Structure formats: C-alpha cells, structure tokens
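pinning this so it doesn't scroll away 📌
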Amino acid sequence: MDTGAEHPKTYEFVKIVVKHFDINLTCLRVVVNPELGSGNSYRIISLDELKQDLQPFRDVCYKYGTPYVHGAFGTRAIYSIL
C-alpha cells in the first residue's frame, strides 16, 4: 500500500529489491471517496508509479481533516480498505 509519503530512498530500495529478486509485487494506492460515511477503495498501480507525492495523505486530510494528538487517523483511513 503506497502512502505517497515514504522517503525517496525507500521507493528506490523497493524497486531494486523487486528487480533483483524478480518479485511479482502488487502495489496499491488508496482512492478516497470524499463523501463522509462512504468507504474508500484502492487501485492497483505499477512499480513505476510508486513515488513521494503525498497525494493519498492529502486526499485523506481533505476528507477527515488533519490528524492531531487525540485524533490520529492515518493507518485507519489509508489501510482500512484492505
């Protein structure tokens, strides 16, 4: 599950490992339904689409607001569709 927020070297490492070990990796990205009360989904992306663009985080913040000490939501919002 690509968060769009990993360190660029993490993305580089994943791509190197996948190529070196010939891994058939399925990469997912959240697709946020902006309507509150409606579930989110995901889409399959290619290894080349893995990048640090923060788009999933932005989409989640737009729907749920920004996280704060007593209301962190990142894992629930981004990974709950699995």
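📌 and the second one:
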Amino acid sequence: MKKYLKKIIVTILEYEARIILARYTPRIVAVTGSVGKTSTKDAIFTVLSSAYYVRKSEKSYNSEIGIPLTVIGAPNAWSNPLLWLRNIFLGLKVIFFRSRYPEWLVLEVGADRPADIKNITRWLKPDVAVITRLSKVPVHVEFFSSPEAVFKEKGYLAEALKYNGVLVLNNDDEDVLAYREKTQNTVLTYGFLEGSDVRASNDAVVFEKQGIAKVPTGMTFRVDYKGNSVPITISGGLGKQHIYPTLAAIAVGLSQNINMVKMGEALKKHVTPKGRMRLIAGVKETFIIDDTYNSSPVALKEALETLSNIHTRKRKIAVLGDMLELGRYSTEEHKNAGKLASVVCDVLVTVGLRARDIAQGALGEGMDESTIFQFEDSREAGKFVEQLLEKRDIVLVKGSQSIRMERVVEEIMAHPEKSENLLVRQEEEWLRR
C-alpha cells in the first residue's frame, strides 16, 4: 500500500513539475556522476547566483521525487501524508498563480537503479549538463549488471541536452570524456591535466598560525582559461574534492559569459557542504576532516590522499566505515582501501561489518595490529576515538550514509552543541533513526 501511494505521489509531483517548467521556462543545469555531485551542484549555485536568481536541489534531492520537489520549491515530507498533500497543493499554486520563479535551476540527478536517469530525461531537458567523475566501481553498482551499465545510465543526461546546450566534462577522467561523443553541442572540459579548457594548478593547503602551531584552514589554487587566470581560495575544506566542483562551476559560469574575477569573488563566500571534507575543530585541540556524507572507493581514495598530503608531526588517524552498495566488489574494494590507509595513517579505526575488510587489507600490508581498532557501532567508535586522541592529531572520518559516521564526529568535535549547523543528517527524521 505504501509503495502504491508513493507511486501516485511521484506521478502527481512529476506532472506538476513538467507544467511548471513549461510555464516558467527556467534554464536548467543538471549534474550527475559517481562522485562529487552535491558539492558541484552547490558550487554552481554559488557561481550562477552572482548574476542570476537561482534555485538548487536541497541536500541530495536527486531522485524521481527529489527533482520534482526542487522544481516546485517544496520540502521533503518524509513519511507525513499531510505534508505530501501540502506539497501537491503548493505545486498547483505555482501553476495557477504566477509568481517570481528562478531564472536557473541547478539540479542534481542520481542513478540508484537502472533507468533512473533515462526516465527523468524523458521530461527534463537541461541547458547545461555536468558530469563530474565516474568510478571503476561506482556506488550503487550492486543494482546494475556492471560498471559499464552505470556509465551508460549517466550518459542519458548528455543525450538529453537541449539544442545549443553545453556539456561540461571532467577532463581528468577518461570515462567521463567519452561522453563528448554523446552530443553535437558545445563541450567544455575542466581538470588539472593539460588540455583542460578550465585548468587548475598550484593547489596548496592554507595554514593559519594559532599560538606556536600552524593549523589547516582551507586551500588555494589557480584557475586558467584562455590566457586568463584567477586565484581561488576555499575556506573550511580540504582536497581536490573541493577543487573539481569549483572548476565545474567556473566552466558553467563561463558558458554563460560570467566574468572570471566575479566568479572568484563569489567563491570566496562559498560555504563547503556539510560532511564533505569539511574542517571541524576537535577536542584536545585536534582537527577533524569530516567526510561523513557518504563513501565510495574513488572518494575514499581521494580522502586518504588528501590526508597523506597534510604535513604534520602529529598522528594521522582514519576512522572509516562501511562502503555500501558495492555488490560483488565489496570485499576487494574494502581491502584496497585498507592497503592505502596502512601507508597514510598512524592509527586506523573501522566501523561496520564490511569495514572489517579495511582492517584486513591494512594488516595484510604490514600495518601494526596494535594500531588497528574495529567497531560495529559508530557512536561506540566515537567514544573510543575521543579517549585515544592526543593534542594536534588530525582525524579523517568517512563512511556510507547508513553507517552514520557523523556520530563519530559528534563525539570528538570541540563544540557538539553546534552539531546541527555543522554535521549532516541532523534533521529530526534522521535523529529518530
């Protein structure tokens, strides 16, 4: 019965979204990929907002129900039927009572299962499509026949571009670059590699002196496009996981003739998304890299590489939870993560049944057993890490959504009273779970 009601609601909201798009004709940026969709969507919103009235998908509203909600401008009603009814009436209000509607919509488009994007693009035709990064073992691959099937599904977004649209691709990912064959429209590329239309270089961690110590506060890099160059500073976040979304956003801005300097100024005020390589002060004057929103093999690898590039005399601790929805690739990918962690970390803490293979991978690579700790519950792991911490340690916390690794961060952050503003999944619906 519940499934049947959901289908009815989705159908009604989608129908309303189609009418609203036809009535108001906003321009649309649609973002997909296996890694970095939400961060990219947020950065694009920041850039376009410097010149236009823009609405973006909230959080990760990237599904058959999340995208219509964004078009309507309605919140997630979770399991409350009265709120869903209110959302339906809100859609009717937008249709029948003309109001000021955004000039641009920035929509995240996900593919949890086969035909997800194919079905959405039957009615959603973007002016700009952005494909961020793929993974040889994508998240959600367990619901597809192969990684190639995931790649094909993502490609439907490129094929759905409007005439004279723009396709923005990650030049550092050869699988993403292959999508240029899916369109006759303009293609803009971004990345670090030579040949990228929008190219980053000279990336470095920014340190700020606090007392006698220097602490990481963000990062800086340069962006070049057709002989023009601007410096970009990102506060509160670390890693290429923030650089790539910024490059994609600048490429989108350039496609709409927004000045690079203006975009650089807008990005100075950009707030990095919660749970995505975000810097948070920890107890005992420690530093937390909060990457707890979700996890996948390629994202975890990048997070560990970022941790390895931070120069410190103190310990590097990785607290890593299960990576879900990897199907038959799960054991191998968790062990591979453990091998990399063994090289990067002084201490490894795993959370979850699947993450035991991370510990096994680290042990197999020669990491001392006395520096590896395993837990099944994130809250319990957090309490242990709090006791383990020493002054100036740097802690990376990462895991898939259902493992609730934000609970680890809450246990070790310096100001847990600010968790609602700093951490992911702090809504009442999540806290009850």
